[in-house]
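Hi Prof. W.,

I finally got the Prolyl oligopeptidase family protein prediction working! I wasn't sure whether to trim anything, so I left the full sequence exactly as given:
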Amino acid sequence: MSFRSFLGPAPATCDPAVETLERIDCGRYVREKVRYSVGPETRVSAYVCVPHGLAGPVPAVFCHHQHASRFDLGKSEVVGLAGDPDQAYAHELAERGFVTIAPDAIGFEERNWSPDGAGNVTWFELSTRLVRGETLLATCLHDISVALDHLTTRPEVDASRIGFLGHSYGGRMALWAPAHDPRIIASVSNCGCIPFRHSYTHDTGIQAEFVVPGFAARHDLEDVVAAFGRTALLISAGAADKWSRGAEELFAGVRRSLGDRAELALHDTGHVFTAAMRERAYRFLADRLAAR
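And this is what came out:
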C-alpha cells in the first residue's frame, strides 16, 4: 500500500500568483523575498537566493528550516538573518553557486498566528485536520511542491537538477519530500532520520507534522524511501543524537531500495549541523546534482 493512501485528501490547488517583495544584494548572490499562494486562502513567504554571474541554469536546493521549538524562526534562520549561524545553509549554498529557496513551514515565523508570534500552533493545525480526515503532513508536502513549482519556472534554475536539504525537522522532511515529489533527485537528511519504531519514548515522541494515522502499524521510513524515484539520499547523523537514533539500521534498510544512491555519514556529534557535517552535505549535493 502506498504511503500516500495514509495522508488523506490533498490540499486544494490554486494559481500561486507569485509576487516579489524585495531584492537584496548579499555580495555573491541576490536574496529575494517572494510571496505566493499555496491554497485559495493561504499565502506563504519565502527567500530565494540567486548567485551572481550565472552562465546558464544551475541546480537548486530547497532548504527546510529546523524546529527547535523556535516557532518565531523559519526561513530567516536558513538564510542567515537570525538564529544559529550553523543553520544558514541556504546562504552557504547560494555562495557556492546553487539557487536556494527557503519558505516558512506552517506554524513558523510569518506562518505563526499565535498572539506573540512564537507559540506552538502546530498541534491545532494537526487536530483540526485529523477530525476532517486530513493530515498536517499532506499540507506540508503540498507546500513544498508549490515552492518547487516556483523554483522550476525560474530561468536561473535547471529544473532537472533539484535538491533538498534539512536539519532536524527539515531532516525528517528530507525523507518524505522526495517520495512525494519526484523532481527532487538528491536529498540530505541531517539529524532527523529516527524511524517511527524508535520514537515511542518520552524523550522523542512523534512530531505533530508526522502524525499519520495507521501508517506505523505496518510501515516505517524504509517504506517511504522505497517510493523514491531516482533520488539519491545522504543520511547524516550524530552518534549521540536522539533524533538520529536508528540511523545505521535505517540506512541498511534503504540500501535495499536505493542501492549505491544511498549514503551514510555518521558523525561523533549530538543534535547539531557543524561545519564538517555541512561540508559533507554540500559535497553530496554538488556531486549528485552535477550535469551529466
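The mean pLDDT is 97. Does that look reasonable to you?

Thanks,
D.
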